[in-house]
Write a structure and sequence with these properties.
Blueprint lengths: L24 H4 L9 H13 L3 E4 L6 H11 L6 E4 L11 E3 L1 H9 L11 E3 L1 H8 L23 E5 L7 H5 L1 H6 L1 E4 L5 E4 L8 E6 L7 H5 L2 E4 L5 H11 L11 H13 L12 H13 L11 H9 L8 H19 L1
Parallel strand pairs: 1-8, 1-9, 2-5, 5-8
Antiparallel strand pairs: 3-4, 6-7
Amino acid sequence: MTLLYPATPSSVPPLDPKPLPPSPGAEMRDPREYRRDPGLVDAVNVALLLRQPLMVSGEPGTGKTVLAASIAFELGLGAPLTFETKSTSQARDLFYGYDTLGRFTAKELATSLGRPADYITYSALGQAIVHANHPEDLKEILPAGYVHPGKRRSVVLIDEVEKAPRDFPNDILNEIERMYFRIPELGNRIVEVADSDYHPIVVMTNNSEKSLPDAFLRRCIYYNIPFPEAPVMEEIILARLPSYFPKDNDLTLMRDAVRFALFIRNDAAGLEKKPGTSELLNWLSAMIRLGARPSNSLSDPTTRDIALRSLPALGKINRDQVRIGELLSDWRDARRS
């Protein structure tokens, strides 16, 4: 096995840059292979039927973010429009941003000011509402060069809403419910979804147990994605890493890794940060790329050595990595007995 980053320093660099293997991330984010449990299917359908936003919680790596892409794919609506929530996010940021400084600078330098609308940048939900209207009806508020795709319905992902300041959910209550927003910089112009057939589909994710205002939750459909059990986890791996684990081959390594991951997620294991689905997928990807055979068991000495070397993908805290190494030995011995 040739390591990309060798254990001993090289005397000279390679003549040509070393090629790196492709990232497995694209396969993991493919909406065509998104596995969903019956409860999630019901929650999505209820949200679609009631035209309400869907709030999805669950551990990191359980598929909350990819859900929006899956919904958009299944409904034929293209890629979702994404708003990545930050600790500084304000209600307006969800709809648009306005370059006040740029307009002021243009005025001070006596350059061409252009229209006030030229200093607007529409964000995810703002774009979805704009796209729900015919471009001719909004031409006075579209900035120069803005490409309107034509009247259409959009899926909007508001990712990691728990990162926003506490007032953020309260400040968008009416806008989320009625699908409109105001632009004070353009004479307090209201932009709204006039045709309900183009009402945006909104998916929000929440990674933590941080409580959200009751008034906000009342306007949402809610579902918590549970951590997958072994059979479902195996389906996810087969869907996400098909080139590593073909369905008709010996999948001993995958099954051992799934059972070990569930074993160390038990509270008795004493881990500070339990590995999630994404960590397990990355661990398996690293093991295969380091030379592990899909047909080998974790009890195999060579495979166990590769598994230990791949622990940075599974354990994200130093103490946890040490503990997982110990548990791997215990688990191997228990499996042998």
